[in-house]
Amino acid sequence: MSKKRPGTRSLKRMLKMELVKELLEERQIGEQKDKQLAKLRITIEDLDKLHEEEDDIILKMEEEMDKQKLLHDQLHFVSNEQLTMQLEKIAMENRCSICLCPWEAKNYHRLVSLKCGHLFGELCIRTHLQLSNVCPICREIADGNDVRRVLLNDNP
Ligand SMILES: [Zn+2]
Ligand SMILES: [Zn+2]
Fold this sequence. Notes:
Keywords: Metal-binding, Zinc, Zinc-finger. The radius of gyration is 49 Å and the shape is rod-shaped. It folds into 2 domains: 8-93; 96-149, Zinc/RING finger domain, C3HC4 (zinc finger) (Herpes Virus-1), CATH 3.30.40. The chain is mainly alpha-helical. The longest helix is centred in the N-terminal third of the chain and has 86 residues, at 8-93. The protein has a 3-stranded antiparallel sheet with strand order 2-1-3. The mean pLDDT is 85. It is built from 2 helices and 3 strands, in the order αββαβ. Bound molecules: zinc ion (ZN) (2 copies). One zinc ion (ZN) binds next to loops.
């Protein structure tokens, strides 16, 4: 019994099978590439979507900032009004409550206080204390000895 040599036919068949195998492998690689490409495409689509969402977020943030700015402006307006009112109040308080005139830095209507801390023009409170022995605002007992000069920081 001699060993059968592979005949030309079976050789051809083997070659054919090799070829088919290679082709199949190539196709598989191709499919994998396609899949990878598809994944990439999905990733790119996702990125686009993300960008759209980002644009949305930026738009919303801008809207929010506009709102905040409006609120801030309104608040600023309110605080300006309040400031004006406070300044008016201070201006009113910076008048002698007896004659309603502003105090003077020097002379007869200069700023003085009583023990209680209430402020007056000197002439007005001295005149008042000749007739009465109480502070005209809080009615705490006071006399001419309680009249003290008040020095504002910007006055000598
Ligand atoms: Zn006065
Ligand atoms: Zn007083």
